[in-house]
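Lab notebook, bench 4. We co-purified these components, and the gel suggests they stay together. Before we commit to crystallization screens, I want a quick structural picture of the whole thing.
Request: model the full complex, all chains together.
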Amino acid sequence: MKPTIVRTIPRAAAGAIRALGDLGVATVHEAQGRTGLMRPFMRPVYPAARVSGSAVTVSCAPGDNMMIHAAIEVCAPGDVLVVTTFSESTDGMFGDLLAVSCRAHGIVGLIIDAGVRDTADLTAMAFPVWSKAVSAQGTVKATPGWVNVPVVCAGAAVQPGDVIVGDADGVVVVPRLDADAVATAAQERLAKEEKTRARLKNGELGLDFYGLRQKLTDLGVRWVDSAE
Amino acid sequence: MKPTIVRTIPRAAAGAIRALGDLGVATVHEAQGRTGLMRPFMRPVYPAARVSGSAVTVSCAPGDNMMIHAAIEVCAPGDVLVVTTFSESTDGMFGDLLAVSCRAHGIVGLIIDAGVRDTADLTAMAFPVWSKAVSAQGTVKATPGWVNVPVVCAGAAVQPGDVIVGDADGVVVVPRLDADAVATAAQERLAKEEKTRARLKNGELGLDFYGLRQKLTDLGVRWVDSAE
Amino acid sequence: MKPTIVRTIPRAAAGAIRALGDLGVATVHEAQGRTGLMRPFMRPVYPAARVSGSAVTVSCAPGDNMMIHAAIEVCAPGDVLVVTTFSESTDGMFGDLLAVSCRAHGIVGLIIDAGVRDTADLTAMAFPVWSKAVSAQGTVKATPGWVNVPVVCAGAAVQPGDVIVGDADGVVVVPRLDADAVATAAQERLAKEEKTRARLKNGELGLDFYGLRQKLTDLGVRWVDSAE
Amino acid sequence: MKPTIVRTIPRAAAGAIRALGDLGVATVHEAQGRTGLMRPFMRPVYPAARVSGSAVTVSCAPGDNMMIHAAIEVCAPGDVLVVTTFSESTDGMFGDLLAVSCRAHGIVGLIIDAGVRDTADLTAMAFPVWSKAVSAQGTVKATPGWVNVPVVCAGAAVQPGDVIVGDADGVVVVPRLDADAVATAAQERLAKEEKTRARLKNGELGLDFYGLRQKLTDLGVRWVDSAE
Amino acid sequence: MKPTIVRTIPRAAAGAIRALGDLGVATVHEAQGRTGLMRPFMRPVYPAARVSGSAVTVSCAPGDNMMIHAAIEVCAPGDVLVVTTFSESTDGMFGDLLAVSCRAHGIVGLIIDAGVRDTADLTAMAFPVWSKAVSAQGTVKATPGWVNVPVVCAGAAVQPGDVIVGDADGVVVVPRLDADAVATAAQERLAKEEKTRARLKNGELGLDFYGLRQKLTDLGVRWVDSAE
Amino acid sequence: MKPTIVRTIPRAAAGAIRALGDLGVATVHEAQGRTGLMRPFMRPVYPAARVSGSAVTVSCAPGDNMMIHAAIEVCAPGDVLVVTTFSESTDGMFGDLLAVSCRAHGIVGLIIDAGVRDTADLTAMAFPVWSKAVSAQGTVKATPGWVNVPVVCAGAAVQPGDVIVGDADGVVVVPRLDADAVATAAQERLAKEEKTRARLKNGELGLDFYGLRQKLTDLGVRWVDSAE
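Here is the predicted assembly.
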């Protein structure tokens, strides 16, 4: 239970990480059985933000960003910082200086269940960040925490080395050992969706080709011509 | 009380619907006596989104979008889907596939007191959507609901066939039978506002031409030169 | 305790106000000891909004914007309206007409712990506004209030004449008499940050040059190579 | 659309109103197809509060209780006041004086999508109240509204004369014309639940007698002995 | 701006403090022009809690209760601790040990815009506490703050030595120098209310004796006999 | 990833479970390094509720309680149900019938990150429940889920078999393998607190015996006699 920084973590294969990022949050979330999604209050700092990478997890005291500094040292290029606090906070724990430091170490993005600041700079740098809040509220460096232990971030459990995917729809966590299987399942899903899209574009109804017309009847729904 | 899908609804005149859309949410809301506005948590998926059309109402189980599929079949070109859930939900009940299907059937927009996903696609398609949340959370198709019954959406009562107007300021509902009268009243209001705008631009004070100076005095407000 | 409108307020020097605006919210907030920040729910109507100016404070009944009209008369060019309500409200108390009037009188921005509307117009006019909500909900002009008394706005105490700084990170209040000292301290901070940024860009770690490595050790944090 | 006070409303039969009150919110809500429930933020001022009666609806400006005074005059003994505001408010619009007045006129309870005060007095009087908030915030009597028009209260549509049932579980609205049918259906449900309760008390599983064991298997759920 | 502990504060007269406590929150709030009320999320830990006393203000880092310890030393018998945090927090910063210490020093209650714990003990001790949350979340003693400076607590500005009144309806702040005048005005109000209560009990209508019937007519409200 | 019900789980020793329950949430949370606490929105249905037991975890679709029925079968006497939903819900997924069934199977309590109903019955039965909401909203039995897999409940990670402790201060999770050590550490803490309580009762200051006076000085805090 003592505050600890774990230096090395296992990571998924780079190919799977890249593939998951290309597939996007909604498709990946569906492909892994609708699990792993963070709460919808996690929003990107700029709309075009996209990321995929290996989670380096950070657990901080509220209003204290000391452990983010400690975490940067143990990151490898391609990692994503996943930051939580012991209790809820919206303080601006991360800004342009930390983003410059992250970029210098190859860190590709930040997921933080708290606040960030210097958002104009983060946008100008195109450093992708998902947070619960934008806040200039400054933080201290006073209380120890943890790096690379299992955390809960925005309602999702994250293990160090899990794959994080973020885009305009939010953030999803793929367990490291499932990364390949989920990427494959998601690609199949995408191909199938492409066919569905073509049929829907043609005016076919989901009601028909998902078999919902019969299902609704079986469930006792009735169709009437008008309200009277 | 049995789950029901109503196939045909009355609609307002196309001219009134178009006029209300051109007038915009704030003006229409004022013109009908400051009624009919949905709660301010309803936000457009992209800032330039604008819509006006006839409401096809949909009442779904939380986390279940089956009835949206059922609703598309009964829509006519120019309709707007107005979707609610039996209890509060932020799940992503609508995404790019459903938007493609909507567009194929002439549906011009979506108002949903829940979540949506694939927001980058919705923006690229310029399919206007107002929602309570953006969330990739997937949904099932398991529980029956209603199409084209009176609903409450984001705090506003909506009858099937009511006129829905949405823009950057939110969403307002105009009762179908009031559409013409409200459009006329709103146009008059707009003309009057144009004159007010010119006077304000010239430096005249609302304090004076709204008669507030006297009113404040009557209400006992005093003017003093400085705090002491 | 009687409703009162105070006509004249003291103001900080124009140079300090301008300097604080150039420095931005996060830097100014840090430079004055991490005080004076409004709650993070205060968001700009458009992302590029920036403002600095002298606070003219307005305390209104919820859903009633009469006192904003009264406040415009007592503003001087360069002032910022700071509007609160007696109890929480998200109503759209300010829109394009009031913005036109503000601009005619040289008012440079609005901070409102309530709602605004006509946001497309405000954006087109580039009139900077920070608010708790966007809402078309119309308001009345019925209940008296106060202009230029001390208020609490979005959790921050504001005195008439305090300097208000707003940007993408939120809104900060600088006590009028501290404006020069804070501007100076913030400029020093900025210069120091510039050096820090260069070192971080070079790959140096905050862990090292903030002395956190030793501190973490002193606090009992241990480094381990892997989770086992 | 002009502010209006409707003097007379239709009411359900006293027997049905009493029966629905005895059955309680959860049972009534189930018996009418899981519809009509107000949002769960509506809480009783004291835990033992229970009410059933005919809705007299009131639509007020936020922070303004003038229309509650107007509504009391048109109430009959056995009525329940159902109060909403044009936009969200938590102000204390109702306190012990209004409760004394209500009691003098035979009004049996209050449902208010806003705040109340003097809660110690309301409890001592055993006057049942469900509200969104407890707040001492005082209100004005300045802006007109409506009495006995259709309203939306805490997410539920209410027509004047609908039956309101409130208890520790919240508040449910029964459409006036359905009152008898719902009361009968609810009594049947209660009888059935009594049998279910006896079986569950004996250790039988809902899994078995609701037929869920087979359903789960059909839906692809698998049972395993342990996590490995 | 440097963290500071102020040892001595001015206080209102004991008689006025006692009188304000006897009058209660709603009456005091009305008597001082409907100002000074804290937000309604401030709730007593047990329903019968009542307090009045002189404010000793404390401004803490979120998740850090060190300054509460510092504040106890400078309190006099009859004081009320008023605790805020630099940014929003619900952590349990105060529990039974601190309550024991408070009682030993004659402190009569706690108002905290954060969380408390050991609520069963606080109730058993009858130590009155109003808080935003109940949370067992532990806190550190690491970051300096302020004692006896002006603070904003739950939306209300508090000066050291102001009179704090708390009961089931919430918490109100009376500026120290106004304590006598407000107590007198509140007593007059109470006497008047007593007469109003008697008339209302007799069935007289507020509509009549507040003159609202005429006012509603002047404002354009119409009475109709039924909805048709 | 397929929906699964795990029949058997490991459990902590009965003695440790009982001891942790006696110690209470705040003490246990502190003793395990301030970890494992659920969010403070989890509140007991009645104030005197207390529980400790082994977690049987349940993951349900929002608005669907089918998996709770499935979970009861695999519970042993002394277990506590820990229920979450795939996405946020306040629906009343648990009521008196399920409580009767739980009691018949020796289940000692319920922790649910959603809503419950029949709260008067639950209180009368003294069946301890912690929930996010009280809501009569009925649920379906349509969508499969999981029993006895790792879950996140109200922000805390829970493994099947972890020890759950609940009281008036909230809910804390103790990892199964840590149960003995945490119970021992908590008992030591309690003993120490007893001595602290005695000293505080005597008027000693935490400022002194926690060594905070020196620490504050070291951190640069200054004491002044009065505000000027």
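Chain A touches chain B through 37 residues (CB under 8 Å). Worth comparing against the SEC data before the next meeting. Chain A has a mean pLDDT of 97.
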